Amino acid sequence: MLVRRLIARLLDWLLVLVVAWPLVHEPVLVVACAVVYDVVLLRLNTFGKALTGLRVVGSASGLSLRRALTRTLVTTALPGAGAVLVLVGLGWREPALMAGVGWQQPWVVIGEHVTVGPTGWVASLLLAGGFALLVLSAVEALDLRGTRTWHDRKAGTAVVRLKVAANS
Question: Of 36, 44, 45, nearest to 69 (Cα)?
Fold first, then answer.
């Protein structure tokens, strides 16, 4: 089930990236789009989970908006924030958000002079924080006990395989 869950997550992120990136060009906004995608579709079924035959279910009372949001904050916002911090720590800057806080516009064309990103301890702190969030996300997702990971237990959800109707 771990491989199916990973493939489903990657398909969902890829879908959001392909749709959102051309529209917003900013990792923070792409992560926000991924959070909205998960919260809205988790109660039905996300594209990735549908393709892999999985579904997130709640307790007997169902998958409430609160449960979906709790789960999404850990499964999408946490690794998304980690990826954004790593990108910023490596010197990549977001066009509108970073310009809004006084940084230069970072559009880089091959051969063009690249402005210097965060340096010294700030870059190291951003990289370390980003990697810490990514590692935390990976560890909590690997703590499988049946169909429930740490985020499933905290949100009161479980991931189940959908039964395929046999053609007879």
Answer: 36
CB 47, CB 38: distance < 8 Å:
no
At residue 136, the 3 state secondary structure works out as helix
Q: Rounded to an integer, what distance in angstroms lies between the CA atom of residue 38 and that of residue 21?
A: 17
CA 118, 121, 123, 126 dihedral sign is negative
* Low-confidence stretches of the chain (pLDDT beneath 70): 60-61, 92-119, 143-147, 164-168
CA neighbours within 13 Å on the CB side: how many for 135? 6
pLDDT in tens, 131-155: 998 898 888 777 666 667 877 888 8
What is the distance between the alpha carbons of residues 128 and 122, in angstroms, rounded to a whole number? Answer: 10
